[in-house]
Amino acid sequence: MSQLLWLAALLKSQYFSSVPVPNTSFEGQTTIVTGANTGLGFEAAKHFVKLNASRVIIACRNLEKGEAAKKAIEGEAKRTGVVEVWQLDLSSYNSVKAFAARASTLDRIDVLLENAGISTSKFSIMEDNESSITVNVVSTFLLALLMMPKLKEMSKKFNKQPHLVIVSSEVHGLTDLPERKDPSGDIFATLNDKSKAAMSARYPTSKLLEVLIVRAMVEQQMQPGYPVLINYVNPGFCRSELMREVGLLRQIVYLFLNARSTEKGSRTLVHASQAGPKSHGQYMSNCAVDVPSAWVRSEEGRKTGERVWKELSRKLEGIEPGILANL
Ligand SMILES: NC(=O)c1ccc[n+]([C@@H]2O[C@H](COP(=O)([O-])OP(=O)(O)OC[C@H]3O[C@@H](n4cnc5c(N)ncnc54)[C@H](OP(=O)(O)O)[C@@H]3O)[C@@H](O)[C@H]2O)c1
Ligand SMILES: *[C@@H]1O[C@H](CO)[C@@H](O)[C@H](O)[C@H]1NC(C)=O
Ligand SMILES: *[C@@H]1O[C@H](CO)[C@@H](O)[C@H](O)[C@H]1NC(C)=O
Ligand SMILES: *[C@@H]1O[C@H](CO)[C@@H](O)[C@H](O)[C@H]1NC(C)=O
């Protein structure tokens, strides 16, 4: 029943919502977009360039693809000397650390748009953990926390909150994290156990974890007035390379769900990157503040979020001792 309601809401959004073309100026701003060589990140970076950003850093795991993207963006936006390609591979914590160290030397950052992500039904290991969890969750928040001191510094320096945007998805509403009931009591360990892994639900699960984590962080450490504005955004269902593992079925799903172009989807990312203080800690969908799933908002969802955040904090401390003090 709840899945049918979810589908009805998705169809309504896909067929009847409008997402305006962004037109606010990013003049003078420096924006960072992860996973920007293709898909939504590429289109968002292009918007930033068209909207007069001074510096747009596209963080890519493959520099060759990054350079090709830079050329395409500069050609289409008819501006050069704005885009820079920086190496970032979220499957390696060392790469995340190196990227954060480099980004911390920038004289200005207005937007950190954490867009890179994967969807896979194959269980594989990256940094000792299941790949979707490593890339979409652990590395995403590792980067966020490593950048926090710099973002706070920017807030002081320019007297304006920088934006930290986490790209999530409406598919977070497809699961209520059954792993929370595992007798081990350890959600991440359960997710990393191949014998217990429900990989068909793994992508939605990773997107739900992002939602729970942002909400717990905001509730516990980043209350309104915090120097950095964080929000999480649903781009809607788009034709990108995300479903690269899926064959012919993909085209049918695109048609049935009236999939958006990545340009259209990227408008929501750009919107979240300049949304006002009312967007802090909020779920952004169709260029407006919305609410995440009913389960996320339930008491069980809140408690689960606390647990997930506690577990992730411990993990992040293991990767970078002292990192929690950055908040
Ligand atoms: N498309 C949708 O319908 C949809 C809906 C809701 C949410 N989203 C979210 O939107 C975001 C972007 O997805 P998309 O649809 O644009 O997918 P996409 O076309 O597959 O693009 C994903 C981007 O992330 C990069 N990436 C993947 N693994 C990485 C890693 N280990 N390190 C650094 N970068 C990595 C990819 O680089 P490579 O090209 O090198 O692989 C690519 O640039 C994701 O977070 C996704 O969950 C998408
Ligand atoms: C910018 O976009 C908004 C929303 O679509 C629209 O209402 C407004 O008229 C646009 N402004 C300009 C200058 O085009
Ligand atoms: C960007 O700069 C150009 C050239 O100065 C100007 O015509 C355009 O209106 C600016 N765009 C925005 C969104 O401010
Ligand atoms: C996952 O990564 C953490 C560090 O974040 C590590 O301690 C743990 O052993 C890894 N493997 C599993 C299966 O959790």
From TrEMBL:
* Organism superkingdom: Eukaryota
Signal sequence bounds:
1-18
Task: Supply the Gene3D superfamilies for this chain.
Answer: NAD(P)-binding Rossmann-like Domain
Under the GO molecular function aspect, what terms does this record hold?
oxidoreductase activity
Q: Which InterPro entries match?
A: NAD(P)-bd_dom_sf, SDR_fam
Going by the UniProt record, its keywords in alphabetical order are:
Oxidoreductase, Signal
Q: Which Pfam families match?
A: adh_short
Alphabetized SUPFAM superfamilies for the sequence: NAD(P)-binding Rossmann-fold domains
State the protein's name.
Answer: Short-chain dehydrogenase/reductase-like protein
Task: Tell me which species this is from.
Answer: Tothia fuscella
